[in-house]
Amino acid sequence: MGSGGYSYIEISYAQLLLSIILVLITGIISALLQLGLIKSLLWGTVRAFVQLTLIGYVLSFIFKLDNWAVILLIILLMCYIASREASRRIKKPMVKPDAVSFLALTASTFLVGMIVVVFIVAPDPWYTPQVMIPIFGMILGNSMNGIALALDRMYGEIYGHLDEVEQLLALGATPFEAVRDYVKEALRAGMTPTINSLMVVGLVSLPGMMTGQILAGMDPAVAVRYQFVVMVMIAAAVAMGCLIIVGLSYRSMFNEDMALNEKLYRNN
Amino acid sequence: MQDFFRFTELTYYLGSREREIRISGELKPGYVLVVKGPSGSGKSTLLKVMARLVKAQGGEIIYRDKNWYAYSPYAWRTCIQYVPQKPVMFRGNGRENLYKPFLLKGIREDRIFNEEKVREYLDIFSLPPQILEQEAITLSGGEAARLSFIRALLIEPSIILLDEPTAYLDQENRIKVLRFFSRWVKEEPGRGIVLISHQENDIEEFSDTSFISLGG
Ligand SMILES: Nc1ncnc2c1ncn2[C@@H]1O[C@H](COP(=O)(O)OP(=O)(O)O)[C@@H](O)[C@H]1O
Ligand SMILES: [Mg+2]
To answer: Where is it located (chain A) (predicted)?
Structure first.
Protein backbone atom coordinates (compact mmCIF):
# COMPACT_ATOMS: atom_id res chain seq x y z
CA MET A 1 0.00 0.00 0.00
CA GLY A 2 2.79 2.47 0.83
CA SER A 3 4.69 4.46 -1.73
CA GLY A 4 8.30 3.42 -2.31
CA GLY A 5 8.07 0.55 0.16
CA TYR A 6 7.57 2.80 3.17
CA SER A 7 5.04 1.62 5.68
CA TYR A 8 4.51 3.04 9.12
CA ILE A 9 7.24 2.85 11.79
CA GLU A 10 6.13 1.69 15.17
CA ILE A 11 7.06 3.64 18.31
CA SER A 12 8.15 1.12 20.92
CA TYR A 13 7.64 1.66 24.66
CA ALA A 14 11.35 2.33 25.01
CA GLN A 15 11.14 5.00 22.35
CA LEU A 16 8.05 6.39 24.03
CA LEU A 17 10.05 6.79 27.24
CA LEU A 18 12.46 9.04 25.33
CA SER A 19 9.66 11.53 24.82
CA ILE A 20 10.15 12.41 28.49
CA ILE A 21 13.01 14.58 27.19
CA LEU A 22 10.35 16.75 25.59
CA VAL A 23 8.43 17.07 28.83
CA LEU A 24 11.69 18.04 30.53
CA ILE A 25 12.28 20.86 28.04
CA THR A 26 8.89 22.33 28.86
CA GLY A 27 9.47 21.79 32.57
CA ILE A 28 12.86 23.52 32.55
CA ILE A 29 11.48 26.55 30.74
CA SER A 30 8.68 26.77 33.28
CA ALA A 31 11.07 26.36 36.24
CA LEU A 32 13.67 28.85 35.02
CA LEU A 33 11.12 31.56 34.37
CA GLN A 34 9.03 30.65 37.41
CA LEU A 35 5.90 30.42 35.34
CA GLY A 36 4.16 28.30 37.98
CA LEU A 37 3.21 25.75 35.38
CA ILE A 38 5.07 22.69 36.66
CA LYS A 39 2.11 21.21 38.47
CA SER A 40 -0.25 21.64 35.52
CA LEU A 41 2.44 20.33 33.19
CA LEU A 42 2.91 17.13 35.17
CA TRP A 43 -0.79 16.62 35.67
CA GLY A 44 -1.46 17.37 32.03
CA THR A 45 1.22 14.93 30.86
CA VAL A 46 -0.13 12.15 33.03
CA ARG A 47 -3.70 12.85 31.97
CA ALA A 48 -2.83 12.96 28.29
CA PHE A 49 -1.01 9.64 28.56
CA VAL A 50 -3.76 7.92 30.53
CA GLN A 51 -6.60 9.30 28.42
CA LEU A 52 -4.93 8.38 25.16
CA THR A 53 -4.05 4.90 26.41
CA LEU A 54 -7.60 4.32 27.50
CA ILE A 55 -9.06 5.60 24.26
CA GLY A 56 -6.59 3.32 22.45
CA TYR A 57 -8.00 0.30 24.24
CA VAL A 58 -11.57 1.51 23.68
CA LEU A 59 -10.93 1.97 19.98
CA SER A 60 -9.22 -1.43 19.64
CA PHE A 61 -12.27 -2.91 21.29
CA ILE A 62 -14.72 -1.02 19.10
CA PHE A 63 -12.81 -1.83 15.93
CA LYS A 64 -13.29 -5.52 16.62
CA LEU A 65 -17.05 -5.09 16.87
CA ASP A 66 -18.98 -6.40 13.95
CA ASN A 67 -22.41 -5.15 14.84
CA TRP A 68 -23.85 -2.07 13.13
CA ALA A 69 -26.35 -1.42 15.92
CA VAL A 70 -23.64 -1.17 18.57
CA ILE A 71 -21.58 1.13 16.37
CA LEU A 72 -24.55 3.41 15.76
CA LEU A 73 -25.18 3.44 19.49
CA ILE A 74 -21.59 4.50 20.13
CA ILE A 75 -21.99 7.29 17.60
CA LEU A 76 -25.19 8.41 19.30
CA LEU A 77 -23.29 8.55 22.56
CA MET A 78 -20.63 10.68 20.86
CA CYS A 79 -23.40 13.00 19.61
CA TYR A 80 -24.74 13.26 23.13
CA ILE A 81 -21.36 14.17 24.63
CA ALA A 82 -20.70 16.70 21.87
CA SER A 83 -24.12 18.29 22.38
CA ARG A 84 -23.51 18.67 26.11
CA GLU A 85 -20.23 20.40 25.36
CA ALA A 86 -21.85 22.66 22.75
CA SER A 87 -24.66 23.80 25.04
CA ARG A 88 -22.24 24.37 27.91
CA ARG A 89 -20.66 27.09 25.79
CA ILE A 90 -23.83 29.09 25.25
CA LYS A 91 -23.81 31.98 27.67
CA LYS A 92 -27.40 33.14 28.02
CA PRO A 93 -29.77 30.55 26.66
CA MET A 94 -33.53 31.06 26.86
CA VAL A 95 -34.14 27.38 27.34
CA LYS A 96 -31.35 24.96 28.13
CA PRO A 97 -30.22 24.03 24.64
CA ASP A 98 -29.31 20.40 25.44
CA ALA A 99 -32.18 18.87 23.51
CA VAL A 100 -31.93 21.14 20.47
CA SER A 101 -28.17 20.77 20.22
CA PHE A 102 -28.46 17.00 20.42
CA LEU A 103 -31.09 17.06 17.71
CA ALA A 104 -29.11 19.42 15.49
CA LEU A 105 -25.86 17.51 15.90
CA THR A 106 -27.38 14.08 15.43
CA ALA A 107 -29.44 14.99 12.39
CA SER A 108 -26.65 16.83 10.58
CA THR A 109 -23.92 14.37 11.53
CA PHE A 110 -25.89 11.34 10.45
CA LEU A 111 -27.05 12.79 7.16
CA VAL A 112 -23.65 14.05 6.09
CA GLY A 113 -21.68 11.19 7.66
CA MET A 114 -23.80 8.57 5.95
CA ILE A 115 -23.37 10.24 2.57
CA VAL A 116 -19.61 10.13 3.04
CA VAL A 117 -19.40 6.62 4.44
CA VAL A 118 -21.95 4.89 2.25
CA PHE A 119 -21.47 6.66 -1.10
CA ILE A 120 -17.98 8.14 -1.10
CA VAL A 121 -15.65 5.98 1.01
CA ALA A 122 -17.89 2.90 0.68
CA PRO A 123 -16.08 0.40 2.93
CA ASP A 124 -17.27 -3.20 3.17
CA PRO A 125 -19.28 -3.57 5.32
CA TRP A 126 -20.62 -0.01 5.33
CA TYR A 127 -20.46 0.20 9.13
CA THR A 128 -16.74 -0.64 9.31
CA PRO A 129 -15.82 1.11 12.57
CA GLN A 130 -12.33 2.13 11.38
CA VAL A 131 -14.14 4.40 8.88
CA MET A 132 -17.30 5.30 10.76
CA ILE A 133 -15.81 6.36 14.09
CA PRO A 134 -13.13 8.77 12.84
CA ILE A 135 -15.40 10.26 10.16
CA PHE A 136 -18.27 10.86 12.55
CA GLY A 137 -15.86 12.05 15.21
CA MET A 138 -14.37 14.69 12.92
CA ILE A 139 -17.82 15.89 11.88
CA LEU A 140 -18.95 16.14 15.49
CA GLY A 141 -15.87 18.01 16.67
CA ASN A 142 -16.46 20.70 14.08
CA SER A 143 -20.25 20.86 14.18
CA MET A 144 -20.07 21.17 17.92
CA ASN A 145 -18.04 24.35 17.56
CA GLY A 146 -20.22 25.58 14.72
CA ILE A 147 -23.55 25.24 16.47
CA ALA A 148 -22.19 26.70 19.71
CA LEU A 149 -20.91 29.74 17.80
CA ALA A 150 -24.15 30.13 15.86
CA LEU A 151 -26.43 29.85 18.85
CA ASP A 152 -24.29 32.09 21.00
CA ARG A 153 -24.24 34.71 18.27
CA MET A 154 -27.98 34.48 17.73
CA TYR A 155 -28.72 35.09 21.41
CA GLY A 156 -26.09 37.83 21.56
CA GLU A 157 -27.48 39.65 18.52
CA ILE A 158 -31.05 39.47 19.70
CA TYR A 159 -30.25 40.51 23.28
CA GLY A 160 -28.31 43.41 21.80
CA HIS A 161 -31.17 44.50 19.51
CA LEU A 162 -34.31 44.11 21.59
CA ASP A 163 -35.55 47.58 20.62
CA GLU A 164 -35.21 46.77 16.93
CA VAL A 165 -36.95 43.42 17.29
CA GLU A 166 -39.76 45.03 19.26
CA GLN A 167 -40.13 47.80 16.67
CA LEU A 168 -40.37 45.26 13.87
CA LEU A 169 -43.05 43.36 15.76
CA ALA A 170 -44.94 46.63 16.24
CA LEU A 171 -44.74 47.19 12.48
CA GLY A 172 -46.39 43.83 11.86
CA ALA A 173 -43.48 41.39 11.69
CA THR A 174 -43.74 37.70 12.44
CA PRO A 175 -41.16 36.41 14.93
CA PHE A 176 -39.03 35.17 12.05
CA GLU A 177 -39.27 38.47 10.16
CA ALA A 178 -38.29 40.28 13.36
CA VAL A 179 -35.09 38.27 13.85
CA ARG A 180 -34.20 37.37 10.26
CA ASP A 181 -31.13 39.62 10.09
CA TYR A 182 -29.80 38.25 13.38
CA VAL A 183 -30.44 34.67 12.36
CA LYS A 184 -28.44 35.27 9.19
CA GLU A 185 -25.65 36.80 11.25
CA ALA A 186 -25.67 33.73 13.51
CA LEU A 187 -25.47 31.31 10.58
CA ARG A 188 -22.60 33.30 9.13
CA ALA A 189 -20.77 33.19 12.46
CA GLY A 190 -21.24 29.44 12.74
CA MET A 191 -20.15 28.65 9.18
CA THR A 192 -17.33 31.11 8.62
CA PRO A 193 -14.53 29.19 10.39
CA THR A 194 -15.02 26.03 8.31
CA ILE A 195 -15.34 27.97 5.08
CA ASN A 196 -12.19 29.93 5.92
CA SER A 197 -10.34 26.71 6.63
CA LEU A 198 -11.17 25.61 3.07
CA MET A 199 -9.25 28.66 1.84
CA VAL A 200 -6.01 28.09 3.69
CA VAL A 201 -5.76 24.33 3.94
CA GLY A 202 -2.40 23.05 2.77
CA LEU A 203 -0.90 26.54 2.75
CA VAL A 204 -0.67 27.29 6.44
CA SER A 205 -0.56 23.82 7.89
CA LEU A 206 -1.25 20.25 6.95
CA PRO A 207 -4.40 18.95 8.59
CA GLY A 208 -3.90 16.36 11.34
CA MET A 209 -5.70 13.61 9.53
CA MET A 210 -3.63 13.97 6.38
CA THR A 211 -0.42 14.14 8.37
CA GLY A 212 -1.43 10.95 10.13
CA GLN A 213 -2.21 9.13 6.94
CA ILE A 214 1.10 10.16 5.38
CA LEU A 215 3.00 9.02 8.49
CA ALA A 216 1.07 5.77 8.26
CA GLY A 217 2.48 5.27 4.77
CA MET A 218 -0.41 6.39 2.61
CA ASP A 219 0.37 7.90 -0.79
CA PRO A 220 0.02 11.70 -0.28
CA ALA A 221 -2.10 11.94 -3.43
CA VAL A 222 -4.64 9.61 -1.84
CA ALA A 223 -4.39 11.33 1.54
CA VAL A 224 -5.19 14.61 -0.20
CA ARG A 225 -8.36 13.19 -1.69
CA TYR A 226 -9.44 12.00 1.74
CA GLN A 227 -8.71 15.37 3.22
CA PHE A 228 -10.74 17.15 0.57
CA VAL A 229 -13.75 14.93 1.15
CA VAL A 230 -13.45 15.43 4.90
CA MET A 231 -13.31 19.20 4.60
CA VAL A 232 -16.33 19.61 2.36
CA MET A 233 -18.14 17.10 4.54
CA ILE A 234 -17.40 19.18 7.63
CA ALA A 235 -18.59 22.33 5.90
CA ALA A 236 -21.86 20.64 4.93
CA ALA A 237 -22.43 19.24 8.41
CA VAL A 238 -21.70 22.56 10.08
CA ALA A 239 -24.07 24.39 7.73
CA MET A 240 -26.85 21.90 8.41
CA GLY A 241 -26.24 21.80 12.15
CA CYS A 242 -26.31 25.60 12.42
CA LEU A 243 -29.47 25.86 10.36
CA ILE A 244 -31.24 23.27 12.47
CA ILE A 245 -30.21 24.67 15.82
CA VAL A 246 -31.02 28.27 14.92
CA GLY A 247 -34.30 27.22 13.35
CA LEU A 248 -35.29 25.30 16.46
CA SER A 249 -34.13 27.98 18.90
CA TYR A 250 -35.25 31.39 17.70
CA ARG A 251 -38.90 30.64 18.38
CA SER A 252 -38.23 30.15 22.10
CA MET A 253 -37.40 33.85 22.33
CA PHE A 254 -41.06 34.63 21.61
CA ASN A 255 -44.20 33.76 23.52
CA GLU A 256 -47.43 32.25 22.22
CA ASP A 257 -48.73 35.73 21.31
CA MET A 258 -45.74 36.26 18.97
CA ALA A 259 -44.25 38.89 21.28
CA LEU A 260 -40.78 38.81 22.79
CA ASN A 261 -40.57 36.39 25.66
CA GLU A 262 -40.65 38.38 28.91
CA LYS A 263 -37.77 36.27 30.24
CA LEU A 264 -35.53 38.07 27.76
CA TYR A 265 -35.99 41.35 29.57
CA ARG A 266 -35.36 39.83 32.95
CA ASN A 267 -32.13 38.15 31.87
CA ASN A 268 -30.71 41.43 30.70
CA MET B 1 -70.79 49.93 18.30
CA GLN B 2 -70.78 49.65 22.07
CA ASP B 3 -67.09 49.59 22.76
CA PHE B 4 -64.39 51.22 20.69
CA PHE B 5 -61.37 50.54 22.90
CA ARG B 6 -62.07 49.49 26.47
CA PHE B 7 -59.59 47.80 28.79
CA THR B 8 -60.69 46.02 31.92
CA GLU B 9 -58.49 44.93 34.82
CA LEU B 10 -55.49 44.96 32.52
CA THR B 11 -52.74 43.37 34.62
CA TYR B 12 -49.02 43.31 34.00
CA TYR B 13 -45.71 43.07 35.80
CA LEU B 14 -42.98 45.68 35.74
CA GLY B 15 -39.64 44.09 35.00
CA SER B 16 -39.36 41.59 37.79
CA ARG B 17 -42.50 40.30 39.42
CA GLU B 18 -42.23 42.58 42.41
CA ARG B 19 -44.61 45.20 41.04
CA GLU B 20 -47.93 44.39 39.53
CA ILE B 21 -50.08 47.00 37.80
CA ARG B 22 -53.82 46.65 37.31
CA ILE B 23 -55.76 49.25 35.40
CA SER B 24 -59.08 49.79 33.67
CA GLY B 25 -60.21 52.54 31.36
CA GLU B 26 -61.55 53.48 28.01
CA LEU B 27 -60.56 55.37 24.90
CA LYS B 28 -63.47 56.87 23.01
CA PRO B 29 -63.32 57.41 19.24
CA GLY B 30 -61.89 60.81 18.35
CA TYR B 31 -60.38 61.15 21.80
CA VAL B 32 -56.91 61.35 23.23
CA LEU B 33 -56.43 59.24 26.33
CA VAL B 34 -53.60 60.72 28.38
CA VAL B 35 -51.64 58.38 30.64
CA LYS B 36 -50.26 60.15 33.69
CA GLY B 37 -47.89 59.02 36.37
CA PRO B 38 -44.39 59.58 37.68
CA SER B 39 -41.36 58.24 35.88
CA GLY B 40 -40.99 54.48 36.39
CA SER B 41 -44.68 53.99 37.15
CA GLY B 42 -45.19 51.73 34.13
CA LYS B 43 -46.61 54.05 31.49
CA SER B 44 -44.41 52.84 28.63
CA THR B 45 -45.05 49.24 29.61
CA LEU B 46 -48.79 49.91 29.56
CA LEU B 47 -48.57 51.05 25.93
CA LYS B 48 -46.60 47.91 25.05
CA VAL B 49 -49.21 45.78 26.76
CA MET B 50 -51.91 47.57 24.76
CA ALA B 51 -49.96 46.86 21.56
CA ARG B 52 -49.56 43.21 22.61
CA LEU B 53 -45.79 43.60 22.65
CA VAL B 54 -45.68 42.69 26.33
CA LYS B 55 -47.85 39.94 27.68
CA ALA B 56 -50.71 40.90 30.00
CA GLN B 57 -51.00 38.63 33.01
CA GLY B 58 -54.73 39.19 33.12
CA GLY B 59 -57.62 41.34 32.01
CA GLU B 60 -58.68 42.13 28.48
CA ILE B 61 -59.13 44.80 25.88
CA ILE B 62 -62.30 45.02 23.87
CA TYR B 63 -61.75 46.69 20.50
CA ARG B 64 -64.77 47.29 18.30
CA ASP B 65 -66.82 44.92 20.43
CA LYS B 66 -64.38 42.04 20.09
CA ASN B 67 -61.87 40.60 22.53
CA TRP B 68 -58.30 41.47 21.60
CA TYR B 69 -57.32 37.86 21.11
CA ALA B 70 -59.96 37.59 18.40
CA TYR B 71 -57.48 39.54 16.27
CA SER B 72 -54.20 38.08 15.04
CA PRO B 73 -51.20 39.71 16.74
CA TYR B 74 -50.10 41.13 13.36
CA ALA B 75 -53.49 42.66 12.58
CA TRP B 76 -53.69 44.01 16.12
CA ARG B 77 -50.27 45.61 16.18
CA THR B 78 -50.66 47.33 12.83
CA CYS B 79 -54.12 48.57 13.82
CA ILE B 80 -53.07 49.63 17.35
CA GLN B 81 -49.72 51.17 16.43
CA TYR B 82 -47.14 51.68 19.17
CA VAL B 83 -44.55 54.40 18.59
CA PRO B 84 -41.73 54.15 21.15
CA GLN B 85 -40.25 57.19 22.79
CA LYS B 86 -36.79 56.51 21.42
CA PRO B 87 -37.11 56.25 17.64
CA VAL B 88 -35.77 53.04 16.13
CA MET B 89 -34.21 53.30 12.67
CA PHE B 90 -33.00 50.34 10.66
CA ARG B 91 -30.07 50.00 8.31
CA GLY B 92 -30.88 51.48 4.92
CA ASN B 93 -32.03 54.93 3.86
CA GLY B 94 -35.12 56.86 4.89
CA ARG B 95 -37.29 55.43 2.14
CA GLU B 96 -36.33 51.86 3.02
CA ASN B 97 -37.25 52.57 6.61
CA LEU B 98 -40.65 53.87 5.61
CA TYR B 99 -41.13 50.90 3.31
CA LYS B 100 -40.23 48.33 5.98
CA PRO B 101 -43.78 47.54 7.21
CA PHE B 102 -44.88 46.86 3.63
CA LEU B 103 -42.52 43.88 3.59
CA LEU B 104 -43.94 42.41 6.79
CA LYS B 105 -46.84 40.08 7.45
CA GLY B 106 -49.09 42.67 9.14
CA ILE B 107 -49.92 44.82 6.10
CA ARG B 108 -47.88 43.28 3.25
CA GLU B 109 -50.96 41.93 1.57
CA ASP B 110 -53.50 44.68 2.05
CA ARG B 111 -51.80 48.06 1.79
CA ILE B 112 -49.66 49.62 -0.90
CA PHE B 113 -46.85 52.08 -0.35
CA ASN B 114 -48.15 55.49 -1.32
CA GLU B 115 -45.38 57.85 -2.52
CA GLU B 116 -47.89 60.69 -2.66
CA LYS B 117 -48.71 60.28 1.02
CA VAL B 118 -44.99 60.11 1.88
CA ARG B 119 -44.36 63.51 0.27
CA GLU B 120 -47.40 64.95 1.98
CA TYR B 121 -46.26 63.77 5.43
CA LEU B 122 -42.67 64.92 4.88
CA ASP B 123 -44.10 68.34 4.12
CA ILE B 124 -46.34 68.35 7.18
CA PHE B 125 -43.47 67.40 9.49
CA SER B 126 -41.00 69.79 7.75
CA LEU B 127 -38.60 67.11 6.64
CA PRO B 128 -36.75 67.68 3.34
CA PRO B 129 -37.34 65.08 0.58
CA GLN B 130 -33.59 64.30 0.57
CA ILE B 131 -34.10 62.55 3.88
CA LEU B 132 -35.47 59.61 1.90
CA GLU B 133 -32.02 59.01 0.44
CA GLN B 134 -30.11 59.58 3.66
CA GLU B 135 -28.82 56.66 5.73
CA ALA B 136 -31.47 56.50 8.46
CA ILE B 137 -29.18 55.76 11.38
CA THR B 138 -27.36 59.03 10.71
CA LEU B 139 -30.52 61.11 11.27
CA SER B 140 -30.74 63.41 14.26
CA GLY B 141 -33.04 62.44 17.14
CA GLY B 142 -35.70 64.90 16.07
CA GLU B 143 -35.58 63.82 12.41
CA ALA B 144 -35.71 60.16 13.32
CA ALA B 145 -38.66 60.76 15.63
CA ARG B 146 -40.63 62.49 12.90
CA LEU B 147 -39.70 59.80 10.36
CA SER B 148 -40.94 57.18 12.80
CA PHE B 149 -44.29 59.02 13.04
CA ILE B 150 -44.54 58.94 9.26
CA ARG B 151 -43.70 55.23 9.21
CA ALA B 152 -46.48 54.58 11.71
CA LEU B 153 -48.98 56.76 9.84
CA LEU B 154 -48.34 55.05 6.48
CA ILE B 155 -49.56 51.81 8.04
CA GLU B 156 -52.93 53.57 8.45
CA PRO B 157 -53.63 52.44 12.02
CA SER B 158 -56.85 53.33 13.84
CA ILE B 159 -55.20 53.92 17.17
CA ILE B 160 -51.75 55.37 17.74
CA LEU B 161 -49.97 54.85 21.06
CA LEU B 162 -47.56 57.76 21.47
CA ASP B 163 -44.85 57.48 24.13
CA GLU B 164 -43.61 61.01 24.91
CA PRO B 165 -43.71 62.01 21.23
CA THR B 166 -42.21 65.45 21.83
CA ALA B 167 -39.19 64.32 23.83
CA TYR B 168 -36.79 64.75 20.89
CA LEU B 169 -38.44 67.77 19.27
CA ASP B 170 -37.66 71.46 19.37
CA GLN B 171 -40.41 73.94 20.20
CA GLU B 172 -41.42 74.61 16.60
CA ASN B 173 -41.66 70.94 15.62
CA ARG B 174 -43.34 70.05 18.89
CA ILE B 175 -46.30 72.30 18.04
CA LYS B 176 -46.41 71.04 14.43
CA VAL B 177 -46.47 67.40 15.47
CA LEU B 178 -49.09 67.89 18.19
CA ARG B 179 -51.34 69.95 15.89
CA PHE B 180 -51.04 67.29 13.25
CA PHE B 181 -52.08 64.50 15.60
CA SER B 182 -54.96 66.53 16.98
CA ARG B 183 -56.24 66.92 13.40
CA TRP B 184 -55.49 63.31 12.52
CA VAL B 185 -57.58 61.89 15.35
CA LYS B 186 -60.66 63.81 14.16
CA GLU B 187 -60.06 63.50 10.42
CA GLU B 188 -61.82 60.15 10.12
CA PRO B 189 -64.23 58.40 12.44
CA GLY B 190 -62.88 55.48 14.42
CA ARG B 191 -59.51 56.93 15.31
CA GLY B 192 -57.96 57.41 18.71
CA ILE B 193 -54.70 58.23 20.46
CA VAL B 194 -53.20 57.10 23.73
CA LEU B 195 -50.60 59.62 24.80
CA ILE B 196 -47.89 59.68 27.43
CA SER B 197 -46.62 63.15 28.07
CA HIS B 198 -44.87 64.88 30.91
CA GLN B 199 -45.64 68.31 29.57
CA GLU B 200 -49.00 69.82 30.53
CA ASN B 201 -48.93 72.14 27.53
CA ASP B 202 -48.64 69.17 25.12
CA ILE B 203 -52.11 68.15 26.16
CA GLU B 204 -53.58 71.61 25.58
CA GLU B 205 -53.22 71.07 21.84
CA PHE B 206 -55.95 68.41 21.84
CA SER B 207 -59.66 69.14 22.01
CA ASP B 208 -61.14 65.94 23.47
CA THR B 209 -59.03 64.33 26.16
CA SER B 210 -59.55 61.91 29.00
CA PHE B 211 -57.07 60.73 31.62
CA ILE B 212 -55.86 57.71 33.47
CA SER B 213 -53.25 57.73 36.13
CA LEU B 214 -50.68 55.21 37.27
CA GLY B 215 -49.61 55.44 40.92
CA GLY B 216 -45.98 55.92 41.93
N1 LIG C 1 -37.34 45.31 30.13
C2 LIG C 1 -37.32 45.61 31.43
N3 LIG C 1 -36.49 44.97 32.25
C4 LIG C 1 -36.46 45.28 33.56
N5 LIG C 1 -37.21 46.21 34.11
C6 LIG C 1 -38.07 46.87 33.34
C7 LIG C 1 -38.19 46.61 31.96
N8 LIG C 1 -39.10 47.43 31.44
C9 LIG C 1 -39.56 48.16 32.46
N10 LIG C 1 -38.94 47.84 33.60
C11 LIG C 1 -39.17 48.46 34.91
O12 LIG C 1 -40.51 48.81 35.02
C13 LIG C 1 -40.65 50.10 35.54
C14 LIG C 1 -41.58 50.93 34.68
O15 LIG C 1 -41.02 51.14 33.43
P16 LIG C 1 -41.77 52.02 32.32
O17 LIG C 1 -43.01 51.30 31.90
O18 LIG C 1 -40.79 52.34 31.27
O19 LIG C 1 -42.18 53.31 33.17
P20 LIG C 1 -42.49 54.79 32.69
O21 LIG C 1 -42.67 54.78 31.20
O22 LIG C 1 -43.73 55.15 33.43
O23 LIG C 1 -41.33 55.63 33.11
C24 LIG C 1 -39.26 50.71 35.66
O25 LIG C 1 -38.94 50.79 37.02
C26 LIG C 1 -38.37 49.74 34.99
O27 LIG C 1 -37.21 49.55 35.75
MG1 LIG D 1 -41.56 55.65 29.68
So the answer is: Membrane
The minimum CA-CA distance between B57 and chain A, rounded to whole Å, is 11
- CB contact at 8 A, A152 and A89: yes
Q: Do A171 and B77 touch (CB under 8 A)?
A: yes
Q: What is the ipTM of this complex?
A: 0.97
Q: How does DSSP assign B129-174, residue by residue?
A: GGGGTSBGGGS-HHHHHHHHHHHHHHT--SEEEEESTTTT--HHHH
What's the confidence (pLDDT) of residue B212? 96
Cβ contacts below 8 Å, chain A against chain B, sum to 72
> Among partner residues A164, A167, A259, which is closest to B52 by beta-carbon distance?
A259
Which ligand ends up closest to the CA of B37? Answer: 1
What is the fold of B5-213?
Rossmann fold (3.40.50)
pLDDT digits (tens, 9 = 90+) for B36-61: 999 999 999 999 999 999 999 999 99
Listing DSSP states for A153-217 in one string gives: HHHHHHHHTHHHHHHHHHTT--HHHHHHHHHHHHHHHHHHHHHHHHHHTTTS---HHHHHHHHTT
pTM metric for this prediction: 0.89
